[in-house]
Structure formats: structure tokens, C-alpha cells
Design brief:
The chain is about 65% helix and about 10% strand. By secondary structure, the chain is of the alpha+beta class. It has a two-stranded antiparallel ribbon.
């Protein structure tokens, strides 16, 4: 498969997954908040712990992860957790941000 086509397919797949997860999460959240949190709890914990561990590895001062404190944003998205960390150089900031 030619590289430009492969890049297009990956971008298209990411877009479809993004829209799908927003729709599924929104529909589940509207039916049962408790069940939705139960389903996403393991992934949320692992995701935020990955950011926190990356902060430790890169020696970026960070607080413990905040888990399951839902915040709904104006664009309809939600945040279920976060890690507060110190501002750092662009490279380490990018590595913390892209941690799984």
C-alpha cells in the first residue's frame, strides 16, 4: 500500500474512532452515569497513571492523578481525570502529553 494512502487510512480511522467513542460514551452517559463510569474506570486510571509515570521518568514535578472528577466542556466533551504538572521544556511536555 502506498504511503500516502496508508496515512489517509490511518487519519480516517482515527476520525471515525473519535466520533464513535464520543457518540457511544454520550449515549451511555445519558442512560446511566454509574455504569458509564464503571466501564471507563480502568482505562481512565491507566491513562492518567501513564501521564503521571512519564512525569516521574522525565523528572517533571507532578501531583498525584485526579481520577473520576467529571468535567463537561462547552464542546460536549468530558474530562474524567487529569494530572497537574509543572511547566517544562517543549520536548518533555510533548512526551508527557503523548503518554498512552
Amino acid at each position: 500500500m502506498p504511503l500516502p494512502l496508508l496515512v489517509f487510512v490511518i487519519i480516517l480511522e482515527a476520525f471515525v474512532l473519535y466520533l464513535g467513542q464520543r457518540y457511544i460514551f454520550g449515549a451511555a452517559y445519558n442512560k446511566s452515569k454509574f455504569l458509564t463510569y464503571l466501564l471507563v474506570a480502568p482505562g481512565t486510571a491507566l491513562h492518567e497513571l501513564a501521564h503521571w509515570i512519564m512525569c516521574i521518568v522525565l523528572q517533571v514535578p507532578a501531583e498525584l492523578p485526579v481520577l473520576f472528577k467529571p468535567e463537561k466542556h462547552d464542546d460536549g466533551s468530558m474530562t474524567l481525570g487529569y494530572v497537574n504538572h509543572a511547566q517544562t521544556d517543549p520536548l518533555r511536555g510533548a512526551l508527557v502529553a503523548i503518554a498512552p
